[in-house]
Amino acid sequence: MTSKIDDALQFQQTALKLRAARQELLASNIANADT
Fold it and tell me: CA dihedral in degrees (14, 19, 25, 27; nearest 10)?
């Protein structure tokens, strides 16, 4: 049981890191387009 929860949380953590990296990339692209 615990393993399933750990797996789900690990997936969520990875997904969150990827989304954060994507947001950072988009924000820097928008900042560069402004100049």
Answer: -150
